[in-house]
Amino acid sequence: MNSVSLEQIRQFRLHTHHLDTWYPKKDILKAAGACGLQNSPPGAWENALYNRVAGCSLEDLRQMLEVEKTLLQAWSFRGTPVVFPASESDTFLSGLVSGQDEPWIYTQGIQLALDFLQMSFEEALALLKQVIPKLDGEVLKSKTALDQTLAEWVRPLLPEDKRELWDKPSMYGNPDKQTVGGAVVSFLLRPCAFMGLVVFGKREGISPSFTSYKHWTGHSIGGNGDPGYKLVRKYLHCFGPASPGGFADWLGCSPVQAGRIWKTVLEEIEPVSPSGRERFILSEDRELLFSPPEPERKIHLLGGHDPYLGLQDREVLLEDRARQKQIWQTVSNPGAVLWQGKIAGMWKSRKKGKGLDIEVTLWETSDGYDKNIENKKDIENLIDQYILFQQLKLNRITFITLG
Prior knowledge:
This is Winged helix DNA-binding domain-containing protein. There is one protein chain. By secondary structure, the chain is of the alpha+beta class. The protein folds into 3 domains: about 1-15 and about 225-290, Arc Repressor Mutant, subunit A (Orthogonal Bundle), CATH 1.10.10; about 20-215, no CATH class; about 300-400, no CATH class. The protein is built from 17 helices and 13 strands. A 5-stranded mixed sheet has the order 9-10-11-12-13, covered by helices on one side. A 3-stranded mixed sheet has the order 1-7-8. The protein starts with a strand and ends with a strand.
């Protein structure tokens, strides 16, 4: 196996994630389709494209998502809302459909409700699939409305003795807003999304709306070839060198499902050795990995859930394990300050009135990044551009340096 350096990996990934230079607006779909854009918390996808495409505005992005519909939002990998090119729906949705005896992504927690109802997963999903086509003529204006409306549509199909249990308050933390039936539906929305039965529609105020894929796009999911094959190729291109375990973590799926999909590319991958471990790349990416283009951009302020950060080998970007815990948290990840592809600090924003307070924390590093006053000026310039993109004003910037 050929050894590959961490610097080569970072430069390779900066390129495949469209972060090595500023890309023109015509490349928005390519940037979005590289590996999809998580939209949790809301707005994460917009920040990700802002960091890749020069001169794009919020209006440009919302026009593509809500009017032109060349971009689409649906629950995808890890069960999260993801924005991707509508033309690649088969890859980001159909590619996640579970095979025989494989658990569905993001459904593990449903068992508590199913045990209460004395119902199998297959029975519950079959019932929901009977009624969810009604969304072809509906737009529901909140997630709560979606859960409860679908639960009401399912209710008449239940045996009489289960309807009372179906209507009981949820055991998952919102008993005043959600029933047991609504909770079951909520878990099953991920499989339904993968099957092209439900997508996000236009945002209504602070709430997303929901409808069917067919109602939103005017057609059913198409596509040619094996969608899982296309999905694992995207993963390897953006996150290689990688492993089947890393692929399973990125998808949020079972090792069995990840292994099944991984097998579709066995003849197109080869091993390399980063830090003495066996990992795999697409054979066609070999030259790019070992001779990546020199990045034109050196400093980035990435959002906390940017795709570039959605990797499993975190030491490639940040070796300090204590600081890894500061960047990758359970919820509310801070943004990351990148210096030549490495994480050199973090940043947070807090809305105050019609403006933002920005706090940037830089870590003392051996390359002296934090001590270069020009770098701080570059960060201030990036913040000014970000404020304009968000159509807000800047209240203040605070810099903190930590050893």
